[in-house]
């Protein structure tokens, strides 16, 4: 399967909805929140001088990928897959931060402690919870929040500076099918664009 699309938007910007949409478009998306084991080689490469081949190897059998920390890999994926396209899912910065705070609370409830452990064990500490951007969603001062928001916005800006515009779609999942299917060159489904958020649908 030739790799076709990387979502370079941060987690909690609609990546679960995008995953559902790509499934409906007959792609094979890899969401790292659903396949948490793939985060290990990615984080080892990004933060522990690990193998790039091992990191890219997790994409085998998939033609799209999204969520933490895939969106930090856009330069490597741009080089490895010259025909791949990129999707920047965006959200209002303050709303994005507050969404993470809410999810942090959900993950720390007793019911979901197993999920929290599953998502974070074996990972370098800086490779979860957007810590590489200085984020602390569980206990954040105004200064920490500002640093986190600045780095979130800086990421979105840099993506648009590095990726050629013909290979990048800046997208909000609320925009619906038309921009996405046009960008991918596929037919628009008759069904409504999906909304999915597994952490908030419990």
For the structure shown, list the relevant keywords:
single chain, 202 residues, five-stranded parallel β-sheet, 5 strands, 42% helix
Q: What report would you give on this structure?
A:
The protein is of the alpha/beta class. The chain has helices spanning 15-24, 39-48, 52-57, 74-80, 93-107, 113-120, 142-162, 177-184, and strands at residues 5-7, 29-31, 64-66, 85-89, 168-171. The chain has a five-stranded parallel beta sheet with strand order 2-3-1-4-5, sandwiched between helices. 31% of the residues are buried.
> Main beta sheet: strand number and arrangement?
5 strands, parallel
Number of helices: 8
Structural class: alpha/beta
Give the integer mean of the pLDDT values.
89
Radius of gyration: 16 Å
Percent of residues in beta strands?
5-15%
Oligomerization state of this entry?
Answer: single chain
What general form does the structure show? globular
Secondary structure elements and pairings:
Blueprint: E1 5-7, H1 15-24, E2 29-31, H2 39-48, H3 52-57, E3 64-66, H4 74-80, E4 85-89, H5 93-107, H6 113-120, H7 142-162, E5 168-171, H8 177-184
Parallel strand pairs: 1-3, 1-4, 2-3, 4-5
Quick recap of the structure?
This protein is of the alpha/beta class and 202 residues long.
